[in-house]
Automatic annotation (TrEMBL):
PANTHER family hit by this protein: HTH-TYPE TRANSCRIPTIONAL REGULATOR RUTR (PTHR30055), TETR-FAMILY TRANSCRIPTIONAL REGULATOR (PTHR30055:SF148)
HTH tetR-type domain span: 11-71
Pfam family, one: TetR_N
Organism: Actinophytocola gossypii
The protein's name in its UniProt record: TetR/AcrR family transcriptional regulator C-terminal ligand-binding domain-containing protein
Family annotation (InterPro entries): Homeodomain-like_sf (IPR009057), HTH-type_TetR-like_transc_reg (IPR050109), HTH_TetR (IPR001647), Tet_transcr_reg_TetR-rel_C_sf (IPR036271), TetR_C (IPR011075)
Keyword field: DNA-binding, Transcription, Transcription regulation
Amino acid sequence: MTANRPGGRTARVRAAVLRAAGDVLAEQGFGHLDLADVARRAVVGKTTVYRRWGTVAGLVADLLAEMAEESLPRTETGSLLGDLTANARLVRDTLADPRQGALFKAVIAAATGDEHTARALHRFYEVRVAEWAPCVRQAIERGEVPAGTDPHEVVRAVSAPLYYRLLTTAGPLDEAAADRAARAAVAAAVAGAYVGWEP
């Protein structure tokens, strides 16, 4: 996907607009995201923004696509616990970041009432889960978890408690929480909790 991106001025304009959109989402939430304001912040012509993205939902979809592409690749440590701990810490670092955490809260809130944003958010997570699923497949091959374990469900099980803490508590999202989430997902996978999910 990245190889097909335009370069030069077009790439600079896209980067500036997406950065400005992310700033507004993090600072003020989805309800205050306005294409004209984003254009002003990005020092880009309004016409350019309206022509390229058309709607706020279209802009958010592109922002999520960019975030999925720019996310760090998976880590391979040689063990499922090591791999999923790396995944959990990456998710934790993202959600604990003041800007990124606020941005995700805003997008998740928007997705509950806007179908276009919900689809974009689902695609974002599909990309990220697919990136880490091979870690579980490798664990199956090594005999760490039972055959038939659904890799996607295991990866989702790692990040789910971290998002839950982000959205439901005011407490810090620390590394201990990330490590605990990884250990719990591995224990459940080893026990066969995710066998038979994958079609």
